[in-house]
Amino acid sequence: MLKIAREERGLSPFELAEPKSLREALALLSGDGVRPMSGGTALMLMMKAGVLRPSRLVSLRRLGLDRIEVTNGELRIGSMVTLRALEKSPHLKAWPVIGRTLRTLSNVRVRNVATLGGHLAHGDPHMDLPPLLAALGATVTIAGAKGERTSPVEKLYAGYLETTIGAGEIITSVTVPAMGARRAAYLKCTTRSADDWPALGVAVVLDGQKTDIVVSAATDRPTRLASVEAADGLKIDSDLHGSAAYKKQLLRVYLKRAIDEARNARH
């Protein structure tokens, strides 16, 4: 059913659709000026700033995409699971690094509303979970009019606020491989409070002799390093959180710290 939203607080009028099935949601997402809405935390801020002026928002909250389960050793998270629900889930027992990361992601009020799918789809390189999930080898399932497809988390991003999610497509779930004997850590450096946007984020996953490293916030998208030594050649971006030179030095320090923390991490 479609509702007409009244103009308030500077927002332009828009239609709000609340479909009850994925098929209905995908049908409503066709056309210009249409956007999906999950938690809406980032979306509403962009609308209030006038960056986005959608003619229709399609709410995903009634599609049943809010389940967390472990199947065949893999963690499967519905895209509408809130970050707070994920943080508190007993299913994270085998993936404690995700819980630790979530506890410093923004604040509880935001985590109570923001969803995993929205967090990943926003495309801001300062988000905390994309680099960690990329380093863990997580994949997303994306649904659209042409059916479902799967993508590694790190392939979701094409640049600053740019993703590879097509028009009319939505993330429906995230799958994280079993940890096994792997050990992981995510560290971020903020210029203000611990839950602020990071000037740098570093995710490290150790698996025997293999080391997976993904850097964020200092780059325009989560970026995988081929090796520790490759950090010196990484293109670093300046922004309000710090200059390129400052972030380059942070990377040298935090990469070593993240590797040490991963080595000492509990499974």
**CATH fold node name of the largest domain:** Uridine Diphospho-n-acetylenolpyruvylglucosamine Reductase, domain 3
Given this structure, which CATH class of the largest domain is correct? Answer: Alpha Beta
Strand content: 25-35%
Largest sheet: 5 strands, antiparallel
Oligomeric state, counting identical vs distinct chains: single chain
Structural class designation: alpha+beta
Topology order in helix (H) and strand (E) letters:
EEHEHEEEHHHHHEEEEEEEEEH
**Secondary-structure arrangement, i.e. CATH architecture of the largest domain:** 2-Layer Sandwich
The helix tally amounts to 8
Morphology: globular
Mind explaining what this structure looks like?
- This protein is an alpha+beta fold.
- It folds into 3 domains: 52 residues, Uridine Diphospho-n-acetylenolpyruvylglucosamine Reductase, domain 2 (2-Layer Sandwich), CATH 3.30.43; 109 residues, Uridine Diphospho-n-acetylenolpyruvylglucosamine Reductase, domain 3 (2-Layer Sandwich), CATH 3.30.465; 82 residues, CO dehydrogenase flavoprotein, C-terminal domain (Enolase-like, domain 1), CATH 3.30.390.
- Helices cover 25% and strands 29% of the residues.
- It contains 8 helices and 15 strands.
- It has a 5-stranded antiparallel β-sheet.
- Strand 13 and strand 14 form a beta hairpin.
- The termini are far apart.
- The mean pLDDT is 93.
